[in-house]
Amino acid sequence: MTKTDAELTSQLRDRADANTFAGYLGIETLEAREGFVRLRLPVRDELLNGHGTVHGGVLASLVDNAVGAALSTLPAVSEDGGSVVTTDLNISYVNPGRGGAIFAEGQILEPGKNISFGEAELRDEDGELVAKGRATFRMLRSKD
Asked: How many CA atoms, within 13 angstroms, populate the side-chain half-sphere of residue 77?
């Protein structure tokens, strides 16, 4: 049975609660539907680099979380008890991350039985592109 968008959003929030690193960063799930998520990262001093902008490692983690969360909305993961692990991630930094929050939209480009590909765009509160990344994930079944 396919889950509703509200059920997927609730499920992702539950998964995020169990992810202590995402919790430390403060990543919030705003929206989810099959193959897509929208996340929010409130910017705070602990996430800034020496230039006063969001650290690149934090942005890369946000890309990783956005694509992984989008993948987790697919039935193969959300309904079959599987999980996903990152096998490759790349990111292009476009503009400094500033302001009160960074928003990530993650989507799956190519779902696969064992390997899946996705991308995420990160934007600031004004809608300016901060970074764009792609990630590859391995699907793990509950028997793995």
From this structure: 27
